[in-house]
Every structure is written in structure tokens, then in C-alpha cells.
Amino acid sequence: MQTTSPPIRQGTFWPEFLRGMKTSLPLLIAFVPFGLLLGSRAVQKGFSIMEVPLLTGLNFAGGSEFAAVGLWSIPPAILLLAGVTFLINSRHILMGATLAPHLRHLPRWKIFLLLFFMCDEVWALTLADLHDRPECRFSTGFYGGITVCLYLCWLIFTFMGGYTGNLLGDMTRYGVDMAFPAVFIMLLKGMWKGARNALPWCVSLGVAVLVYHLLPGAWYVPAGTLAGIITALLVVRGA
User: Fold this and answer.
1) Which of 23, 174, 214, 227 sees the fewest Cβ atoms within 10 Å?
2) Which residues are within 8 A (CB) of 23 and not within 5 positions of it... i.e. 6 or more apart?
3) Nearest residue to 40 (alpha-carbon basis) of 60, 64, 70
4) Which helix (H) or strand (E) holds 212?
5) What CA–CA distance (Å, rounded) separates 103 from 7?
6) What is the pTM of this model?
7) 26: closest CA among 191, 172, 153?
């Protein structure tokens, strides 16, 4: 259903942009170590220093990038890499669908541009802002501020990780691999709407964990996604 809320007032792009940048700053704590870790692993797998930011810049989705680097071989198994990347990134189809009603007032070229830079964190912060400010339409400035901060940070620190290579050693011994789970827990807390609405999250998590242990590859991503959707539909119908 098309949103009927009034648009953001003209001339507020830059204040909204700065608000988006400020909102994204806490997430940089997670982006920095994970960017260094991904860049370092990519170089160890045979990527050149310039290929690292090319990878992270064209596919702004950390989970599929780590999977692609982990499966990388020489010569690369293109079909395997493409299939795993598609499975892991399939969640973006649903993420884009949730934002679609809020983007209908924008020209198509701008919608495609915005969705190209959509990652989990950008999506979650934007959706939370829309829920917190139902009187306003989608704010391009707010979305842009978040995106610029996170995208540039990811691009810069994956490059730095590739540049330093093995100098950083195994960064997981410092516990940096817990940075992203901590971020997602924080994002979920901000989107908390009560125990009933959290049921799809729990079902999605349970199914994803089960499939992860039973099937090889990244099938747990679409399995958890579909389980969450079905549960959400049942919850809505039963309300």
C-alpha cells in the first residue's frame, strides 16, 4: 500500500544527511575490524590490493564477500561463487520489498541507485527511522548519510586490510568476529515491537541453524528467510 504521509520538506537534505551520518557512527566500530579482516583474507587468497576494493565496492554485502573469499580458488569456480553469493544475498529481495512502499514517490533511476547501496545495516536503520517518524516520508538525505559513512568505511578498511596483508595476523583471536553479531543484536533491539512480533525472528533463526547443520552451502539463508515469512503471514492472519 502506498504511503500517504507527507514528504520531507524541501531544503532539508543536508540536515538529514548529517543526521544519517551521526546515526551510523556506532556501526563503524564493527565495520573497521571486519573490513581489515576481509581485506587481509582476500590478499592471502590471491587477490591483488586493487581487486579487494573492487570486490567490496561492487558487492556491498559482507556475508557474501566473506563466503566468496573463503571459496576462492585458482582458477575460480565461477558458478559456485555466483550461486553462493546469490543465496546469501537473496535476503536483499525481501529487504527491498519492505522499503518499496516508501520509495514510490521517487524516480526509478534514484530507487535503483539507492537499492544498490543497501546493506543490512542501512536497511535496518532506515526502516527503524521510518517507524519512529511515521509522519514523514522516506528521507533520501538520511539514507544517503548512513550509506556514505558505511560504504566509504568498508571500502577504505578492506583496502587497508589487503595492503597490510599478513601483518595483522589472525584477527579473530581478538574477538573481532563478534562485532557483527553484536551490531545485529543492537539493530534488532531497536526494531523490537513485542514478543508476538518477535516470533518470526525466532522461527527464522531456528530453521536457519537447523539447515546450517544439515545441509552444506548457504541454503540456511533462504530457508531461514522463507520460514520467517511464512511465520509472519500466520501471525498477521491470526491477529
Assistant:
1) 214
2) 125, 129, 142, 145, 146
3) 70
4) helix 195-214
5) 11
6) 0.81
7) 153
